[in-house]
Amino acid sequence: MESGNIFEANRLLGRDYSVPSIAPQAEKCEKGHSLNSLSLSVNPTLLLPPPGKYFAKVMLRKRAVPATVYITTDNPNRAEAVFSGSDSACLQESLEEIAGLEIQLRFAERLS
């Protein structure tokens, strides 16, 4: 995991590597706009992949919402998940229901 080889980590685990986080309070979007990113804090005792850009799925209840996830050197215990298209609208609806609940961030692939 420390090298960022998500594919190999997932192969060895037999599943996608995942870390838990807490869904933040939903921010209200202006009418006609959707939430397109989500900043997630991760327990510092858990291992996040090294800084980079990743493809992941944010597990909201039983729904997997695809996202591009950025991890930076500025705060290695924070992941920024960016959503697009119809996933943004779905995310806004879901967040209002799950704020404060545990969600999973499942890493599938390192993009850069």
Protein described:
The protein is α+β, with helices and mostly antiparallel strands and 112 residues long. It has a single domain, classed as Riboflavin kinase-like (Elongation Factor Tu (Ef-tu), domain 3, Beta Barrel). It contains 2 helices and 6 strands; from the N terminus they run αβββββαβ. The protein has helices at residues 6-13, 86-98; strands at residues 17-22, 37-41, 52-60, 63-71, 78-82, 102-110. A 6-stranded antiparallel β-sheet has the order 1-6-3-4-5-2. The two termini are 14 Å apart.
Number of domains: 1
CATH topology category name:
Elongation Factor Tu (Ef-tu), domain 3
Q: Which regions are unreliable across 5 or more consecutive residues at pLDDT < 50?
A: 29-33
Number of strands: 6
Q: State the CATH class.
A: Mainly Beta
The assigned CATH architecture is Beta Barrel
Order of helices and strands: HEEEEEHE
Helical coverage, percent range: 10-25%
Over the alpha carbons, how many angstroms does the gyration radius reach? 14 Å
CATH superfamily: Riboflavin kinase-like
Roughly what fraction of the amino acids lie in strands? 35-45%
Q: Largest sheet, order of strands side by side?
A: 1-6-3-4-5-2
Distance between the termini: 14 Å
